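Structure in, sequence out. Go:
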């Protein structure tokens, strides 16, 4: 039935395999045995102490006691495989109870496939397995992603009549989901709608989520007769992992309204969603729940908080949390290094990286993405060259497209365009179009029309349906006032049936997230917003602000261009923020595109004239506008 495998880790003495009583010992233990002192989920040390008592008491030959030792190990949070195996091999004639628990130990080990070897031995002695055998065996197959062996075990389950056992059915659903056979999971789930418990529903829910089938997951979730915290956790994580961040946060809100206590996984997921969207209030809510419910500050939770505050613009709070973490792993350091980089604190990020090395950590690919980003955002060209070389020569880290992207951005933004081109051309793998697009953006900054035209046309040939390349090329022509070329590119863009991605800006206020696009008049307070926009425009003009309109892609009058830029989405979001926040409060904006030159200048002036701090997170980095200056030092 089972295919031949390499020599197994498990081996059995010949007398075990030949004895007719193999596997048939009683599972009974005396009421006053040393085992009675063990808690429900004993630690390894507790089990070892009882094991020592059994040996000292002269009971080591008692197969029943030894079988229960294996049961204790199977229930332990961490089970050393070698120790479990050594105990099992001391049993001359293991019972089914002992064998089942050895399978369970193997299922938790680094060698889960070995459970199939033990199962084959059970079958070889004509011993009929029970429902526990199949539950543990299927768990082992799930961990090993052993779909072939698992399918054969499923056949045995059907043959021996265990299909109606809810625990076996749950294990089957989990097996097929883990092995990306969600349709098989669905068939098992639908075979008997009377043989289900909350674990059955959760297993099917998790299967759909793992397969990215959120619609099917929602249907299962809605139909569940009973939901526990795992159900909510799975649904929330499903939304977030599939990019439906707002739905994930809404699901969390609904769970809280029902009075359920979230687990750590839910809180980490909510913090991740808040970080990705830049929604500080949602993140603070999750943090307050962590504190109010006295959650221990684990590495996962601490890292999620560090990441959330960094991505929501509160870099000082992020640094404070990082330094106060009782324990940090490499992901914690990476989150902090990348956070500092995104805020333009390049030298701090590099200093933290050196401390990271001094404390004995070994950098990985993500670490150097953070380091190189830090160099790029701060214009640290020599340092970037040094670390780019260090990662391959000292740490033997394979260069990935993201590393090249950081270097191309660093070099081209700093004016070393030719060096950036040379770096791309020397790549062993074909360059990602993003690299050329990064270079195209630098051509716009430095006014390199000829090179920009060459790269822009190359990108349009590579991907004629992506609108961003047309827009960048048209922007280069517009900056050079080559309006005929602007019209030609825009006409080509229409012919290819592409459209410019609409820029939007988010602001979180009064318990809601408000989204604006350029020229937006859909907001319920639109009239007030535009009145505030006029007030802002008048005040900053009196203070010396002059619009920068070179990026407007139309050959229209200067006044019309000024009207276009002043209605950009972040301007509307700032105006709304001025209406709904207290005087002196910080206004926080999240953008999906790079902030334009004019809005950057206007935001600096607004921060000075109205004495407001404005924090804008665009697709690339953070801009902290305060007292007429920006944290990026106009280098972005």
């Amino acid at each position: 039935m089972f295919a031949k495998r390499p020599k197994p880790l498990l081996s059995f003495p010949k007398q075990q395999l030949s004895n007719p009583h193999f596997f048939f010992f009683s599972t009974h233990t005396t009421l006053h045995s040393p085992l009675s002192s063990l808690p429900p989920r004993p630690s390894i040390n507790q089990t070892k102490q009882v094991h020592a008592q059994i040996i000292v008491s002269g009971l080591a030959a008692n197969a029943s006691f030894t079988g229960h030792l294996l049961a204790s190990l199977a229930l332990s949070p961490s089970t050393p495989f070698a120790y479990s195996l050594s105990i099992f091999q001391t049993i001359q004639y293991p019972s089914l109870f002992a064998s089942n628990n050895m399978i369970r130990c193997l299922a938790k080990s680094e060698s889960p496939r070995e459970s199939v070897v033990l199962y084959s031995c059970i079958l070889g002695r004509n011993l009929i397995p029970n429902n526990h055998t199949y539950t543990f065996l299927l768990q082992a197959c799930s961990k090993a992603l052993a779909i072939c062996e698992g399918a054969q075990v499923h056949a045995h389950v059907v043959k021996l009549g265990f299909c109606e056992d809810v625990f076996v059915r749950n294990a089957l659903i989990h097996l097929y989901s883990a092995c990306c056979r969600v349709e098989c999971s669905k068939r098992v789930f639908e075979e008997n709608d009377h043989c289900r418990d909350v674990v059955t529903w959760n297993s099917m829910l998790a299967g759909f989520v793992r397969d990215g089938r959120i619609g099917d997951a929602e249907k299962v979730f809605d139909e569940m007769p009973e939901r526990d915290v795992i159900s909510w956790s799975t649904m929330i994580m499903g939304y977030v992992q599939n990019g439906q961040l707002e739905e994930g946060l809404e699901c969390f809100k609904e769970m809280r309204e029902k009075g359920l206590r979230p687990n750590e996984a839910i809180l980490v997921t909510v913090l991740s969603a808040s970080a990705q969207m830049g929604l500080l209030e949602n993140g603070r809510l999750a943090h307050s729940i962590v504190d109010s419910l006295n959650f221990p500050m684990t590495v996962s939770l601490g890292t999620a908080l560090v990441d959330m505050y960094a991505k929501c613009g509160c870099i000082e709070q992020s640094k404070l949390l990082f330094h106060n973490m009782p324990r940090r792993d490499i992901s914690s350091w990476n989150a902090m290094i990348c956070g500092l980089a995104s805020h333009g604190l390049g030298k701090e990020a590099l200093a933290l990286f050196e401390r990271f090395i001094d404390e004995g950590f070994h950098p990985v690919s993500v670490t150097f993405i953070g380091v190189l980003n830090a160099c790029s955002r701060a214009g640290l060209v020599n340092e970037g060259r040094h670390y780019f070389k260090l990662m391959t020569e000292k740490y033997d880290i394979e260069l990935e497209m993201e590393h090249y992207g950081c270097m191309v951005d660093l070099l081209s933004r700093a004016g070393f365009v030719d060096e950036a081109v040379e770096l791309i051309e020397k790549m062993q793998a074909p360059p990602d179009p993003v690299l050329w697009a990064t270079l195209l953006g630098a051509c716009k900054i430095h006014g390199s029309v000829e090179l920009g035209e060459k790269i822009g046309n190359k990108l349009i040939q590579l991907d004629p349906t992506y609108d961003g390349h047309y827009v960048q090329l048209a922007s280069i022509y517009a900056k050079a006032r080559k309006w005929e070329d602007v019209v030609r590119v825009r006409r080509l863009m229409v012919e290819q049936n592409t459209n410019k991605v609409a820029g939007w800006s988010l602001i979180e206020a009064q318990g809601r997230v408000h989204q604006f696009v350029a020229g937006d008049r859909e907001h319920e307070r639109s009239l007030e917003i535009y009145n505030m926009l006029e007030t802002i425009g008048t005040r900053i003009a009196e203070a010396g602000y002059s619009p920068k309109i070179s990026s407007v892609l139309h050959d229209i009058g200067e006044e019309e261009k000024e009207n276009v830029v002043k209605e950009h989405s972040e301007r509307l979001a700032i105006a709304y923020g001025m209406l709904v926040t207290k005087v002196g409060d910080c206004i926080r904006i999240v953008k999906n595109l790079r902030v334009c030159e004019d809005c950057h200048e206007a935001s600096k002036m607004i921060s000075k004239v109205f004495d407001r701090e404005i924090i804008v997170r665009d697709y690339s980095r953070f801009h902290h506008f305060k007292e007429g200056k920006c944290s990026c030092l106009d280098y972005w």
